[in-house]
Amino acid sequence: MEERQPELGGVWKRVVVVGGGVAGSLIAKTLQFNADVTLIDPKDYFEIPYASLRSKVEPAFAERSVIYHKDYLTNGRLIVGKAISISNSQVLTSEGHQISYDYLVVATGHSGSFPRTRRERLTEFRTEHEEIRSADSILIVGGGHVGVELAAEIAFDFPQKKVTLIHEGSRLMEFIGAKAADKALQWLKSRRVEVMLRQSIDLDNLSEESKTFETSSGERIRADRLFVCTGKPPASDWLKETFLKDSIDRFENVKVDENLRVKGYKNVFAVGDITDEIKQGYFAQQQALVAAKNLKVLMEGGQERKMAIYKARPGKIIVSLGRQDAVAQFQYSTWIGLVPGMIKSKDLFVWKTRKKLGLDPRIVDH
């Protein structure tokens, strides 16, 4: 793909955003009329992450939550490819593109493999739905919010299926308070989900055909379908041989300052789950908006003291429990049931996210 020349004879600064997830997509959309923006992503679509579990049990839900990048990036350039290296002025992709930048935003999130095209992703959801529908028993490994929400989605839509959730911790969802975690556990049990704590599965020694799984305590579980919902490391490996190698901490996170610039660099930002900030979709969006504001200040020649300071303000945490219920942890209280469910579970913030991208919340993309 040919490089698009900057507008106004080079007046516009070149901003390259690497990663089109919840943070990268928003920052590219926000800056596209203020800079010569290039978004580099291995996929031709952005997927609203909070909706992916619902899409496994209801594939039609993905029609609104899997969005072509081109639908919101109307004045920027999209390169569908994987960034493999950077210098202090260019990004190199696996296809051989070399894209020059004045400002770089790293937003590659967590490691993971996804289909390249929106069409393939929608097909994948339909396949997973059919596998869930045809299975009598399902095993979920990992009791963080992903494992809990997936178990709840399946238990709600397919109450006749045997669902087992295994978690190596002493309680579910260690990132949330014990009271909220216990409420989620009781909800799952009320839906006949078997929850096994302080146990694990050796995932490195499983065959694809295996339908019987042995836990760390020696118990054998039969399941027609396995879902692994354990945490994934930040996608920072590609930076380890670059000039940013010393900006990665021992947890594989990219270290950022209060303005969301990579520590020690004036023109390189990092946002979203790759950073050493709180890893949650809401905070990733807030980071994107702060970084976009700061990039505008710098591109317009403003003083650094005018840059916005990012400070995470943990407020509510809501974990969806099927279509109607949720457990919500607020600063001074914890709720479960229909009220927090009305906030998140019905639409999983798809409406709000589409609006932030400038898209009609009700329209299905084609």
UniProtKB/TrEMBL annotation:
Top-level division of the source organism's lineage: Eukaryota
Gene Ontology molecular function, alphabetical: electron-transferring-flavoprotein dehydrogenase activity; flavin adenine dinucleotide binding
InterPro entries cross-referenced by the UniProt entry: FAD/NAD-bd_sf, FAD/NAD-binding_dom
Domain FAD/NAD(P)-binding: 14-288
GO cellular component, one term: cytoplasm
Function comment: Putative FAD-dependent oxidoreductase.
Protein name, entry field: FAD/NAD(P)-binding domain-containing protein
Organism classification: Eukaryota, Viridiplantae, Streptophyta, Embryophyta, Tracheophyta
